[in-house]
Amino acid sequence: xxxxxxxxxxxxxxxxxxxxxxxxxxxxxxxxxxxxxxxxxxxxxxxxxxxxxxxxxxxxxxxxxxxxxxxxxxxxxxxxxxxxxxxxxxxxxxxxxxxxxxxxxxxxxxxxxxxxxxxxxxxxxxxxxxxxxxxxxxxxxxxxxxxxxxxxxxxxxxxxxxxxxxxxxxxxxxxxxxxxxxxxxxxxxxxxxxxxxxxxxxxxxxxxxxxxxxxxxxxxxxxxxxxxxxxxxxxxxx
Length: 238
Prior knowledge:
Number of domains: 1
Strand content: 25-35%
Low-confidence stretches: 1-34
CATH class: Alpha Beta
Shape: elongated
CATH topology: Protein Transport Mog1p, Chain A
Number of strands: 17
Structural class: alpha+beta
Mean pLDDT: 82
C-alpha cells in the first residue's frame, strides 16, 4: 500500500507541475510578470593551440675540398696532400679515382675510356732495353726523338702558372710501348690510343700531365678534360 500511494502521489504532483508550466507559457492574468532569469554565460570553447610538427634539419651536401679516393668521385673541388707540389682542381660528374691521394701520381678515369694522370717523372723506359732508367733533363726532347713513338711538334703551353710544352703521342707500330717507370709498374701507351702529354719543368723532376683516350674519341676527351685543366692550380712553391 505504501508503495502504491507513493506512486500515485508522484503522478499527481507531476500533473500539477505540468499545468503550471503550461500556464506560464500562455498569457498571464496575474498583476506582475514573472522575473526572467538571466541567461547563463557560456564560455566559448577553448581551442587547443596548434603545435607545429618538429622541423627536420635540411641535409647539407658536403662542399669540399675533397680528398682523392678510389671509385666514383663527387663533383666539386679537390686537393692533394701526399702529391708534391700540392694540387687543387675541380671535377665534373663522371670521374673515378684509380687510387687514393698518392705521392707518386694522380690517376683518374673518365667516361668513354678517358685516362688522366699527373706525375713527377723520375724514370723513363729505355726504348732499347725496356728497362726503367733515370729521366733525362729535357723530357720533351726525349719524346720527340723516341724511335717507337709518333709525336706531334711541341707547342708552348701554360697550365696554372707553370709554362712548358704540349705534344700528342701515339705508338708507331701495333705494339704497346712503355714510357714512364714507376715502382708499381710502367706507364704504357697501347696501340689505338693517343696521349696528349704536357711537360712542365719544375725544380726536380718534370711534372707531366697526360690525357689519354682511344683515337676515335680523343677529340671529345680533350674537350671533357678542359674544365679540369682550366681549374688546375699547381702550388709550385709547396
